[in-house]
């Protein structure tokens, strides 16, 4: 039965007293209020009844055969500490009452007493018990509401994730669609040539082979995205391998160009082919595509140009060649300082209809590949995103390098002013990802 109110509710009460007349008087008072009362003639019987089925409130005489009220109190406190225990004492039991209160008794009733006096001394126990039950009810309600909120939050997050995944897949699909349309046109041209008895154009066939290669590349990009989603569920990502950075940048640039708005100028300045990085190619390509598409969208809001280039930070050792910075720079409106630290946060967006996943996917992809990401921005001047990763030079590149001056691959003239706000995205991880060292191939 519910125990949420102090009146009109059947608290389950255990009443222990070796005097039957007094036990009957107290039991009658409590039952008239609607409480469920179980009686015991001594302390041992009371303990057995309590041990079988705990009670919310226990009323016990202090002096009883078998087990005293103090001993019963101590046992109840060990078994069920939140039970309200009210002691009934005779005149002259002051020292015993004080001891009982020290052991956690809720209150005491001094004999002799009237029915009204007895109920008045019981009221604090009723109130505390009702308060405890109301608190428990509210806590359960809070847990229920939190569980509901968590379910709704997960559903919303799943919706945003699926929307972001659709956004990510749309980029390579656009790329695949464009190439498929060209292939279809080439096939029609070849059929027309065949109908006229003209041999196929070798240049056209070579172009078709290139388009097919790009189509397969788009399929691999989508497969990589599926693999990344699996990684969210704890599945390992594909391994990294050493590859030419210039090739990855060119593929990313070509795919991003399919999303470039008209009127936006885009320049690619890749590093030499001897620059090797150890990465998961589809993941880092996705990183660069997202950064480029984000820059294109920013330039539409005010600006004209996007640059995609590299800068070398060399080290004077034969084992470790240093870092290469892949830079996406635009002359768009820039990012307000108030939100600059949030741009890589998943689902954070200031664009109407945006998913808030493009930059966060780029950041996570870079981090998984051992790269660092920095963002510099100034309102009215533009934004620069830098992805820094370790690299080494392939074979003959090391000999060429020794004949070049330091800073050979320098940064082009910036589109913006010199003053800018810069943050390094290290808040998401407690420590930097260690940079791998590479040795020249034999």
Topology:
Blueprint lengths: L11 E5 L3 H13 L3 E5 L2 H10 L4 E5 L7 H11 L4 E6 L4 H9 L4 E4 L4 H81 L6 H31 L8 E4 H13 L7 E5 L5 E5 L1 H20 L4 E10 L7 E9 L27 H11 L3 E7 L3 E9 L1 E2 L2 H7 L18 E4 L18
What is the helix content?
A: 40-55%
Shape: rod-shaped
Largest sheet: 6 strands, mixed
* Global structural class: alpha/beta
Q: Can you give keywords for this protein?
A:
rod-shaped, 442 residues, alpha/beta, 10 helices, disordered N terminus, six-stranded mixed sheet, 47% helix, 14 strands, five-stranded parallel sheet, Rossmann fold, Heat Shock Protein 90
Structure description:
With 442 residues, the chain is α/β, with parallel strands linked by helices. Among the domains are: 12-113, Response regulator (Rossmann fold); 240-424, Histidine kinase-like ATPase, C-terminal domain (Heat Shock Protein 90), CATH 3.30.565. It contains 10 helices and 14 strands. The strands form 3 sheets. Strands 7-9-10-12-11-14 form a 6-stranded mixed β-sheet, with helices on one face. Helix 7 crosses helix 8. The radius of gyration is 39 Å and the shape is rod-shaped.
Summarize the structure.
This protein has 442 residues and is of the alpha/beta class.
């Amino acid at each position: 039965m519910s125990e949420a109110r102090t009146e009109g509710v059947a608290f389950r009460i255990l009443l222990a007293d070796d005097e039957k007349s007094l036990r009957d008087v107290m039991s009658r008072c409590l039952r008239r209020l609607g409480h469920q009362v179980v009686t015991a003639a001594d302390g041992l019987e009371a303990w057995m009844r309590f041990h079988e089925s705990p009670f919310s409130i226990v009323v016990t005489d202090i002096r009883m055969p078998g087990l005293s009220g103090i001993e019963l109190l101590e046992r109840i406190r060990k078994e069920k500490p939140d039970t309200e225990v009210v002691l009934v004492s005779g005149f002259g039991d002051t020292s015993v009452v004080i001891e009982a209160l020290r052991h956690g008794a809720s209150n005491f009733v001094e004999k002799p007493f009237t029915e009204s006096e007895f109920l008045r001394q019981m009221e604090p126990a009723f109130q505390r018990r009702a308060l405890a039950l109301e608190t428990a009810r509210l806590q359960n309600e809070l847990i229920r509401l939190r569980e509901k909120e968590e379910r709704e939050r997960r559903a919303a997050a799943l919706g945003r994730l699926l929307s972001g995944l659709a956004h990510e897949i749309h980029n390579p699909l656009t790329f695949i669609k464009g190439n498929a349309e060209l292939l279809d046109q080439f096939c029609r041209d070849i059929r027309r040539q065949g109908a006229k008895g003209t041999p196929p154009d070798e240049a056209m066939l070579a172009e078709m082979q290139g388009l097919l290669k790009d189509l397969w590349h788009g399929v691999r990009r989508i497969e990589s995205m599926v693999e990344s989603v699996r990684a969210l569920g704890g599945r390992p990502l594909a391994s990294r391998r050493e590859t030419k950075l210039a090739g990855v940048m060119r593929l990313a640039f070509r795919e991003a160009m399919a999303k470039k708005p008209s009127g936006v100028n885009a320049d690619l300045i890749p590093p030499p082919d001897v620059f090797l990085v150890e990465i998961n190619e589809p993941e880092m390509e996705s990183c660069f595509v997202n950064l480029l598409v984000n820059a294109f969208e920013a330039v539409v809001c005010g600006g004209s140009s996007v640059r995609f280039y590299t800068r070398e930070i060399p080290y004077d050792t034969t084992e470790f060649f240093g870092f290469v910075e892949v830079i996406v720079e635009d002359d768009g409106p820039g990012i307000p300082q108030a939100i600059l630290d949030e741009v890589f946060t998943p689902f954070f967006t200031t664009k109407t209809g945006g998913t808030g996943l493009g930059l966060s996917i780029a950041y996570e992809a870079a981090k998984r590949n051992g790269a660092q990401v920095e963002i510099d921005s100034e309102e009215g001047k533009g934004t620069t995103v830098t992805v820094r990763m370790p690299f080494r030079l392939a074979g003959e590149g090391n000999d060429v390098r020794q004949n070049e001056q330091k800073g050979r691959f320098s940064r082009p003239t910036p589109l913006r002013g010199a003053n800018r706000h810069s943050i390094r995205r290290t808040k998401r991880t407690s420590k930097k990802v260690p940079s791998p060292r590479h040795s020249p191939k034999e």
